[in-house]
Amino acid sequence: MKVGFIGLGNMGTPMAKNLAGAGHELTVWNRTASKAEPLKQQGARVAKTPADAARDAEVVVSMLADDHAAEAAVLGQDGIVSALPRNAIHVSSSTISVALSERLTKAHTDAGQGYVSAPVFGRPEAAAGKQLWVVAAGPKAQVERARPLLTALGRGLTELGERPSAANTVKLSGNFLIASMMEALSEAFALAEKCGVERAAFLDVFKSVFAKAPIFENYAGAIAKGQYTPAGFALRLGLKDVSLALEAGRAAEVPLPLASLLRDHFLTGVAQGRGDEDWSALGALAQERAGIEPKG
Amino acid sequence: MKVGFIGLGNMGTPMAKNLAGAGHELTVWNRTASKAEPLKQQGARVAKTPADAARDAEVVVSMLADDHAAEAAVLGQDGIVSALPRNAIHVSSSTISVALSERLTKAHTDAGQGYVSAPVFGRPEAAAGKQLWVVAAGPKAQVERARPLLTALGRGLTELGERPSAANTVKLSGNFLIASMMEALSEAFALAEKCGVERAAFLDVFKSVFAKAPIFENYAGAIAKGQYTPAGFALRLGLKDVSLALEAGRAAEVPLPLASLLRDHFLTGVAQGRGDEDWSALGALAQERAGIEPKG
Amino acid sequence: MKVGFIGLGNMGTPMAKNLAGAGHELTVWNRTASKAEPLKQQGARVAKTPADAARDAEVVVSMLADDHAAEAAVLGQDGIVSALPRNAIHVSSSTISVALSERLTKAHTDAGQGYVSAPVFGRPEAAAGKQLWVVAAGPKAQVERARPLLTALGRGLTELGERPSAANTVKLSGNFLIASMMEALSEAFALAEKCGVERAAFLDVFKSVFAKAPIFENYAGAIAKGQYTPAGFALRLGLKDVSLALEAGRAAEVPLPLASLLRDHFLTGVAQGRGDEDWSALGALAQERAGIEPKG
Amino acid sequence: MKVGFIGLGNMGTPMAKNLAGAGHELTVWNRTASKAEPLKQQGARVAKTPADAARDAEVVVSMLADDHAAEAAVLGQDGIVSALPRNAIHVSSSTISVALSERLTKAHTDAGQGYVSAPVFGRPEAAAGKQLWVVAAGPKAQVERARPLLTALGRGLTELGERPSAANTVKLSGNFLIASMMEALSEAFALAEKCGVERAAFLDVFKSVFAKAPIFENYAGAIAKGQYTPAGFALRLGLKDVSLALEAGRAAEVPLPLASLLRDHFLTGVAQGRGDEDWSALGALAQERAGIEPKG
Known about the structure:
By secondary structure, chain A is of the alpha/beta class. Chain A has helices spanning about 10-20, 35-40, 50-55, 65-75, 100-110, 125-130, 140-155, 165-195, 200-210, 215-225, 235-250, 255-270, 280-290, and strands spanning about 1-5, 25-30, 45, 60, 90, 115, 120, 130-135, 155-160.
């Protein structure tokens, strides 16, 4: 396929290489031109502007740092929208805002062009090793045409429906999950350390109990299903245990703000009559805060 | 070994069965006597009080619901301390407070008895299937003597040093990690749902990207090591992404209190000059809040 | 009146002096005896134990540092309960827990003694200047008999019903309000300072707009009444303004965790259909979290 | 003075009336023209566009609902910037973002026009009664020329230096203080109510102890000064009291998220060695989070 590739940073470069390696014909662009050198040596044409890279493409893939860079490359002067042929497709893999994704959708649609949002999960090493996970959303026919590229980038693909910005929501939610786990680990390590537990020992427990076991997967399934009775572990026991963690933190002088937040949510659950439901009923509380009607 | 077993609830019963199955000679006690019936049929003797179950034991294992129940069974009238032979060991598997664990340590030590704290990770099914993970702490010689029992309960064991309450800290920290992941998932599902993403699709992404991949393990390792440079993903990008999630939440009217907390911590990191460190430097912030001096 | 006074710290000493100055006959006790010297010079008898101070008293007033000290002085060996005559009254002014206040109520009642909880608002200077505000709760007849003492301590008295611990709840809630205002001011000063506003200028605005104006009083009245329509200032405007404060904080690199909490609550209000109510409908959200049925 | 007035909502109308009443010659504009009727009857000229209202003015005052409305009226087609004479001044009283205020400053400066930011504190009744408090910032000479208008709007004025956006920061910070107090009151009322305290009684305490007393003013002064020793009330006592409030909340099943946040901050203070400083050292913690060096 004739492919334009916009954005050759730590992520973009290995992604572009994988597309070239899969036999696609690449025209690449990067703001700092020198970064295009490795791709050029691999046979890619180097464009002067995003528009140049888009002009003859069937699909343009972009991988840019933030909203600012993405907006400039797509909607700015000599941007992708100005040159991409009608019916050609822009596959946007950047981690950008839902709002910008919706503006890009409109701009491309108005220009008779296709737009698929396809952010990826994984660090540069994963990109290099074709181990990214791609989440893609957009009109079905367009996702279909882009599929050979999407599958050349990583180890798997989840399709998220026809509305492109849904993929951005999921990418942002995924990074939020990672950051949450890091915060939880950060607080837990601080507590453990100040209570005299070796960091290496706590890490060993984490690896053994959590990291590869289906525990998080099981809870994710429970929350997805929204069925909180019968309780495997009652919410009021969750309140008890997180309160004990906070007491231990007070005694050892270790603030645990995430534990405080959990305590407030568990206590809200108890006050609202959910004490005997499963502790995963945190999911129901989040829905209620958001004004989502429970299913069923 | 001659083993007393105190507490035959959803967890205690399968644990006791596994000990009996491993060839140990059990005397069991439960507040509601009828629950001892299954063990009795498996050949266990049924005691009238915790003291009765402890009187002739080499090791007493207890698995009780909370501080209140544990305190009564150990320190109360006809409690374990009153009858356990000198040099015999109490292995406490209940999820209790650090403070109570320290009081039990003292009471047993004063009585010339051993005390090993050995809480377990896993639900009743895991207990039945010998799939618990045990975290044990106490004097080395005592842990050694209890080892045949500890390994008969589950699939693995992490030893956490000589101070029994360290194991309680780790158990509480583990439950805190689970609750944190559930809260994060709850908020993420609410956001995804209100943005039009099917719950099943989001669950699929979670399973593919997070649940069995080494991602959490890798970050846990980074935080344990405390090395935040060079950055794989910069803290200021973490601030960007969590801010975008909050913006999406505002637009869709989905409050994300855990994301707000993360935003404040990332912003603190940026304000304090850590914007170019890895986003796992959340670990350094938690240490500083706790007054822990950074290593190295 | 014959009065025992227990606890001669920064608060207790000026309070005791005011009682002596109002003509009451004092017997005082303090753990560190030397602190009783000023009262002795004013004519007070110095007791060896709390029991000694209580033995002949019509009323014993106590002003101690915390739960630990209060429990020891009342329920411990040679404590107040052991010696106070039947029908005499213990007026407890210490800032102690609701739970301990309820235990003290029971102990005194069981002993045929009276118990009035009467914590005070104000610092040592206010105590010295008879400017404390007293909040009292307990059986009506007992409060009546203690009234001459309660009014001798300060500038005013609010009666809070027959259940003594209610006064402790109100005292703790009051300190919580002060701490909340301090946190809000702390964050606001940090934001102002980093945005180039002189601290003195911001203080001037605070004094002029808030400190003596009826603004907080008006909002307190609105929340007490629980009437949130018609809106004077709509909740969705509250969301707008607190979001703008957070944006300003992000630009200036000033984390505002209390503002984040407010944003989440306002956004919850909007998501749950309260966007057009007055922003004081935060009061309704707090009630719902606590499972309190709205009046009406 | 010849004055243009833009925005005749609940706040703008009484403000404009006061300017007319003070003898200024008004040309008014409002998006919905019918709202200009009352001013017209008071002798004001009604303009067709913001530009019309600005064309002959010495000063244009604007009071608009949000960033969107303000941006349109100032920078949009037929906006203020397009017609205001050189050296005439735009006084912007709207509650807008710091970022927009900075863009308006630049636009007016580039056009050779003056720009003073002058948001106001007070509700419509206060506007009608000339009881607003004005916070103004901008080049000294321009503030001087606008002074007759600023003083005709309210009961007082605080000047905040030469950078206009500083006044927006202070206005947003002020609304943040109000919302914080409302949240604190909301949680305190919920706790009091569920503990059996009449709302009216708690309101009485609030009015007596806080609303008109100098307590908040005193703490604001302490935080402004940043002197936290010697302690009037030690930070570790603040931790104690807020922890007791949380315990009471747990017993009564009342979540207190603001109290949780305070607990975390007090505990951080204790862990970092500030336990014996005054509890207003919350101010120092806020500075440190923001990377502000303490004054010395």
